[in-house]
Design brief:
single chain, alpha+beta, three-stranded mixed beta sheet, 11 helices, elongated, disordered C terminus
Length: about 280
């Protein structure tokens, strides 16, 4: 990614006093900056926190650095908005570290770079999308901060109609190849769609315990999920495995006096399941 948008966003944080001179210097000299995916000031601030240049515990108090704090100035309001958005970028419902939360959010945001109504109009004029696909995509356009938006891109917008708008399928996109005078746009979009997806195989193992046979039976199933690609190789531990333990009985129900047998068998089942869970994996 071009370094200029990242540096520009960091410089803006320094201008509105959300970064001190020392913090700004540390960020601009960070060896990971050339690989950064951020573009806006809020994304830049979230990245600075994820890189531990600014402690996460200090994030909420950063707007107090803005000039005219307490007077309701525009710069103070802007600083508060940037901090609020940055906080959302490194937070989530899953207990992941800030850098992981941010990485996921930025991968999703970059899919929207270059997507615009103007680009959709041009795709329609070039007959790469039809009127219905154009109308559907217009209704789902993302909102951009104009000052920080990426330049319009026909290839990015065409890929977005597949990845996010759902106006075209991946097969529809591939079918355009060789049928228009704009194969370079189609090829670029196809590459973007392929690069934005990777597969994670999830294996589910279900173990059933039968009261009739006092035995375990195990069955497995697997599924494949499309995820955003990462600019690094996913470790083997990223493959998810789920074990579900159940027990069933087809025995006829007993009369009340035999209830103690059910309780005993239930206790044995629970003990066996616990032992299997602890040592059987």
């Amino acid at each position: 990614m071009n370094l200029d948008p990242s540096r520009r966003a960091l410089d803006h944080l320094q201008q509105v006093r959300l970064l001190t001179d020392a913090e700004h210097a540390a960020a601009t000299n960070d060896p990971e900056l050339p690989n950064a995916l951020f573009r806006t000031p809020a994304e830049a601030l979230a990245w600075v926190v994820a890189r531990e240049i600014v402690p996460q515990a200090q994030l909420a108090d950063l707007p107090t650095r803005a000039p005219g704090t307490g007077t309701g100035t525009g710069q103070e309001n802007e600083a508060q908005a940037i901090v609020s958005e940055a906080t959302d970028l490194i937070s989530g419902e899953f207990p992941l570290p800030p850098w992981a939360q941010l990485h996921i959010r930025l991968l999703d945001r970059r899919v929207h770079d270059g997507v615009s109504a103007s680009a959709l109009d041009q795709l329609l004029a070039l007959q790469l999308i039809d009127a219905a696909q154009h109308s559907h995509s217009l209704s789902m356009l993302p909102t951009h901060e104009e000052a920080w938006a990426a330049p319009d891109s026909l290839a990015a917008t065409l890929a977005w109609t597949v990845l996010r708008a759902g106006a075209l399928s991946a097969d529809d996109l591939k079918a355009l190849a060789g049928r228009t005078a704009h194969d370079e746009i189609v090829a670029n979009a196809v590459a973007r769609v392929a690069g934005a997806r990777t597969e994670m195989r999830t294996t589910k193992t279900t173990t059933t315990f039968s009261l009739d046979s006092m035995d375990f039976t195990t069955s497995s199933s697997s599924s494949t999920t499309a995820l955003p690609s990462m600019p690094f190789a996913a470790p083997p531990s990223s493959t998810s495995q789920t074990r579900t333990f159940t027990w069933t009985s087809s025995s006829a129900s007993e009369s009340a006096p035999g209830g103690w047998k059910n309780k005993l068998i239930g206790a044995v089942v629970v003990a066996l399941v616990a032992l299997y869970f602890l040592f059987g994996r």
